[in-house]
């Protein structure tokens, strides 16, 4: 659907290449939230990021499992959404609605590595000095999903 077959050879429409015109030259799906192609950590091949920095993954090479930050960055928002406490309790509805949240009964009910979306497992202390556990992942549509242990 991206070209015309002439004498058993594909002639691709603009913005498509490859022997079957199945490779899009559109880099829009590779654009990271910082405006860089593949977050500056990969190459855009056929409209898909090929992350060249092994620490980064995901559709735009923005998820980093081993980098400090994913857990700490979202800790206050998870705390106010799940437990109605913490530093962002008063501003929760304005600042912390950027992810879908699912409560689970126990840690073994949290999503496990091996799923298609990059996943961070988090263990953080709340304002009462108690541990709480959650996972943070971003799916291919760019939607953030948090699973938190009740």
Give your account of this protein's structure.
- By secondary structure, the protein is mainly beta.
- It folds into two domains: 3-64, Laminin (Ribbon); 68-149, Hormone receptor fold.
- Helix content is 12%, strand content 34%.
- The protein contains two helices and twelve strands.
- The chain has a four-stranded mixed sheet, covered by helices on one side. A two-stranded antiparallel ribbon has the order 1-2. A two-stranded antiparallel ribbon has the order 3-4.
- The protein is elongated, with a radius of gyration of 20 Å.
- It starts with a strand and ends with a strand.
- The mean pLDDT is 89.
- One of its GO terms (cellular component) is focal adhesion.
Task: Walk me through the topology.
Blueprint lengths: L2 E4 L2 E4 L3 E2 L5 E2 L17 E4 L2 E4 L4 E2 L5 E2 L5 H14 L8 H4 L3 E6 L14 E7 L5 E8 L5 E6 L1
Parallel strand pairs: 9-12
Antiparallel strand pairs: 1-2, 3-4, 5-6, 7-8, 10-11, 11-12
Helix and strand element order: EEEEEEEEHHEEEE
Percent helix:
10-25%
Separation, N- and C-terminal Cα atoms: 49 Å
Low-confidence stretches: none
CATH class of the largest domain: Few Secondary Structures
- Strand-residue fraction? 25-35%
How would a crystallographer describe the biggest sheet? 4 strands, mixed
Rg computed from alpha carbons, rounded to a whole number of angstroms: 20 Å
Q: Any guess at the CATH architecture of the largest domain? A: Irregular
Tally of separate helices? 2
Number of domains: 2
Write down the CATH topology of the largest domain: Hormone receptor fold
The beta-strand count equals 12
